[in-house]
Write a structure and sequence with these properties.
Blueprint lengths: L1 H28 L2 E15 L5 E6 L6 E2 L4 E5 L2 H26 L3 H33 L5 H30 L3 H26 L2 E3 L4 E6 L6 E2 L6 E16 L11 E6 L7 E14 L13 E9 L11 E7 L2
Antiparallel strand pairs: 1-8, 1-12, 2-4, 2-7, 3-6, 4-5, 6-8, 8-11, 9-10, 9-12, 10-11
Length: about 325
Amino acid sequence: MHRRILLPTFLVTVVLMAVGWRSWRASRTEGELVLYGNIDIREVNLGFRVAGKVRDVQKDEGDTVQPGDVLARLDDEPFLRELEEAAAQVSTAEARLAQLQRGFRPEEIAQATALLNERETTLTNADRVRLRKQDLAARNVVPSQELDDANAAYGEAEARRNSAKAALNLLHAGYRTEEIAQAAGDLARSKALLASAKIKLEDTVLKAAEAGTVMTRAVESGAIVQAGASVIGLSLNRPVWVRLYIHEPELGLIKPGQKVRIYTDSHPEKPYEAQIGFISDRAEFTPKNVETTELRTQLVYRARAVISQPDGGLRQGMPVTARVERR
């Protein structure tokens, strides 16, 4: 009797549990998932790559800039002088290399040839004198000392002739390859210094690389700044992200590429279209500046949504609400 009563009761319980589970699952997969986060806009601090004296700052806080706009300038006078000096060094190095490659001047070779001819003539005369002294000394007409002097004069003339001949051969051979290679290296170094001087001169003009809005103006005209010091703080127009935080039970409902609608408190009637681009693999605590209805000590996963058409209504750190259709 009891078994007949328990069996229908058990079956009813199972059916009710199945219906409840399906209802709970449907509630988890239908409707919208509400997430909270903050606007995240990239900011960059711009500065000169060289140190110097600020000549002028052409943008102020709140100004909008486009790529290539001039933001500030340094006094370029010292860099112009450095460029001129580097250009002069290049000219000197080019002249030196050309001189070595062409070899010695024809006038120098002609002068060395004339000197060799002169010493050839002197050697010939010394040889004649030596031979006469030898003949006279053999007949005891002159003392042996005169023969010795004649032989010495001949040897000296021969040595001087050989020296002039070697000098002429050296002129014909030109400069050594090592000297030419060194001159070519000096020229390359001078050109590198010239290119560096040109880059330094260009670096005296600070330009915007991307479109954005000036957030901070850190220096004024006349200030001395070091290389890399912040001059202009720029908030970039793109990309504009939203940092969202997903609770672990809802993690399976979000995936990269999913469409999101972003709402701000200032314009709740105007949603921004966005797309999930990143979901962190590491759990973390919800930041204190994110307003949610959950306990702030719960672990969440950080996600990033990229807004497709941002405008001036979005500000850095602005709290937003994201609505995602459940998958």
